[in-house]
Amino acid sequence: MTRHLRFCVCLTTALLSACHAACADEPFVPGSGVKVKQSGDDFEDPNWGYVMNGSKASHEQDEQQRPPGGKSRNGRWYESAMRGQPDLIKRVPTPPGGLEGSEGALLLATRLSGIPGKISGTQMQDDLLMGVATRVGRPVPVSWSPSCTVRVYLPEFEQWENRTGASFGIRADVRGKDRDGAVEPYWPGFFILFRSETSKKFDEDFAQISFRAQPSGRDRGGPEIHEPGWWTFGMSFTPDGQVHYYAHAGTDDLTEEDHLYSSFPYGSKCLMFDNFFVNVANWENGKNWSTSWVIDDPAFYVIPPQGQTIANLSRRRGKSSAPSTGQSGFHSAMRKFGRKLIK
Q: I need a surface site. Which of 71, 106, 211, 223 has the fewest CB within 10 A?
């Protein structure tokens, strides 16, 4: 490539990036608009329960789905077909400092996070999905400005799995148009990383937020967390297909001041929101339990387009709990099992 041609390519790329940024929609605070009551959970029902339904899925490792898959008794949560569900999913009393009036929250932890009956000796993770498309009857277009929020309890650092690396994920299951124009699933969100003093890279234990992802596909480092306790996380999706990340310490509702980052992850423009989900990661050696994570009050919201109401969003078809299945043949196969491919 000649020097002149290289200059033209770089200039064109820079101009396109500048135009892209100039045309981007303004971020909005997650939790804006109308709460979609068919989705989300407050864990206040003392009879809340989860049914594992046999061995977990491990399609990411060995292409085994092991249906029918786990699900909550209230129909709002279900196992990922890609990696399976955490080993412990249990309603517990809300930890101190939680939402006012909250008496129940959800505890998540895992130990055998890989292929059932085998030990990987590597970091693995399990997923638990909160249905959105499964509950309203269709994927939610970004023209409805969807957003999701959740409160997460970070325990004292001496109670974390003593390993530097990813510990917990707060993510969305969406579909978007990539640089080549193809519509593909992808999974933006937050990771909570542990920085252990035993790794010799850090002087003390602390946590750090990481964003998935930059347009390049690489994660972006965010704020450090040096005090345990409750945090509130949220993502909002503007009609231009951009993802906006918000978080703060405590359980108060998010505000404009809590905006941390905006991106077109992987260079994709989001088109549809399917589900919200969480990851629980550990070093799978048959002994190590993950950090015990507690979440509360996960919720999903939309801002109806002009002339629409929340009643126009729901298109339930009977009582099926099968999720939206995306574009691929594998996703189509998931419909019969009520399971979802997640990476």
A: 223
The single-letter DSSP state of residue 61 is H
Q: What is the pLDDT of residues 129-179, one digit of tens each?
A: 999 999 999 999 999 999 999 999 999 999 999 999 999 999 999 999 999
Q: Which tokens go with 45? A: 């029902």
Q: What is the CATH number of domain 27-337?
A: 2.60.120.200
At 223-275, the pLDDT tens digits run: 999 999 999 999 999 999 999 999 999 999 999 999 999 999 999 999 999 99
**What pTM did the predictor assign?**
0.88
What is the 3-state secondary structure of 13-57?
A: HHHHHHHHHHHCCCCCCCCCCEECCCCCCCCCCCCCCEECCCCCC
Q: List the domain boundaries for the chain.
A: 27-337
What 3-state DSSP class applies to 335? helix
In angstroms, the CA 117 to CA 286 distance is 10
Query: How far apart are the C-alpha atoms of 251 and 151, rounded to whole Å?
Result: 6
Write out the two tokens for 68.
């029918």
Pick from 240, 269, 236, 238: nearest CA to 254? 236
Q: What angle do CA 98, 279, 28 make, to 5 degrees?
A: 65
